[in-house]
Specification:
CATH class: Alpha Beta
CATH topology: Sufe protein. Chain: A
Order of helices and strands: HHHEEEHHH
Number of domains: 1
Structural class: mainly alpha
């Protein structure tokens, strides 16, 4: 399986971590997760919802140069979800449409995320990737 370089680095990092380190890293990612840019605040009705997540998650993508840039709206009081979303945005922002849509849904398996988060969160994570692909196609 070939992943974009940044995402592969994240997968490799998580694969080598203990459960506690994974939780700490998810919190660190959550803390660095950016708020939805002001220019998208009024477009929330047009954003792609992620119904697989218990937490309200909305995605919008835009084409920037030759890559796709994702922006997500996730409540600050959901650090695990924000951390998981940050993995996706950090790993995929700037990638081409082809790289994004060719991402296998099970790319995260080597990360052993089930050690740190519930299956429900993992299902939301997989759902978010699927909706990011849809948003990328609309933007691309």
């Amino acid at each position: 399986m070939t992943l974009p370089k940044k995402l592969q680095e994240i997968v490799d990092d998580f694969a080598s971590m203990s459960r506690e380190e994974k939780l700490e890293m998810l919190i660190a990612y959550a803390e660095s997760f950016p708020d939805l840019p002001e220019r998208f605040q009024e477009e929330r009705a047009n954003m792609e919802p992620v119904p697989e997540c218990m937490t309200p998650v909305f995605i919008i993508a835009e084409k920037v140069n030759n890559g796709i840039q994702f922006h997500l709206d996730i409540p600050k009081q959901s650090p695990t979800v924000r951390g998981l979303a940050a993995i996706l945005t950090n790993g995929l922002n700037g990638c081409s449409l082809e790289e994004i849509i060719s991402m296998p849904a099970d790319f995260y398996m080597p990360m052993n995320l089930q050690e740190a988060v519930s299956q429900q969160r993992i299902n939301g994570f997989i759902g978010a990737l699927a909706h990011m692909k849809q948003s990328a196609v609309k933007a691309g």
